[in-house]
Amino acid sequence: MNLKKIIGDLFLLFIICIMIIPFLYMVITSLKVTYTAYDFSIGFDDLTLKNYIQILRNDDFFNFFKNSIIITFCGVILTLTFSSLAAYSFAKLKFKGSFNLFFYMLMTLIIPSQVTMIPLFIIMKHLGFINTYYGLILPIPTAFGVFLLRQAIINIPNDLIDSAKIDGCSDFMIFIKIILPLIKPSLIALSIFTFSAAWNEFLWPLIMTTNNDVRTLTVGLSILKTQYTVNYGLVMAGATITFMPSFLVYIILQSKFVKGITLTGVKG
Q1: Can you give the residue ranges of every domain in the chain?
Q2: Three-state DSSP class for 190?
Q3: Which of 32, 42, 171, 213 is most buried (CB neighbours < 10 A)?
Q4: pLDDT per position as a tens digit, 220-248
């Protein structure tokens, strides 16, 4: 076996071990009632499910979980809908100023989201969207989704679209019956990106919510940490529950995710 390949594999294995240590610490600590963040001891006699039971008995926690589910899934649907329509327009429907419009839209990606939070908050306040699902869902779609799907749609041959037009298909029917089935892997990849980002978002829900009715799981976890500052096992149990949905979504759709990313990079 090539020496360089062995060294490369060992280096990657070392990186994996470093990255997995925080997750192992989180899971192990969540199974203990510990009063220090520096408790690295591992003993089967100390393992308990008391922290998870205490969290699952908390009514507010289920409310936070429900809010995260609603906001995340609505955000994914909204992102897929508008991103796919915009991507099809930029990729196949040539109109005056399309390239410039697409370029300016991409430039928004280099602006940190924290910079736009104040003007976005003012807009949401005037619209009356504070402490509502609307204020948390509407900002989820970004130009990244349009860019990702546009790269996939560009690879679709124009001859296929021209043939459909000859057969009498409208642009919308071409989009529904031809474009969407062909970019399904890219749609799944975008779904994973959006799901992970929306599920783990903390700062924007913290700004937009002032009561527990619409707070998400990440914000609820910070409240849990403030309320139970002594038991770090309880905090880690909440973090583990928060982490698992996005992790499971990626594991289930991993093969489609890799295929979708590969397809978007074939042609620029």
Answers
A1: 57-264
A2: helix
A3: 32
A4: 877 765 454 557 788 888 888 888 888 88
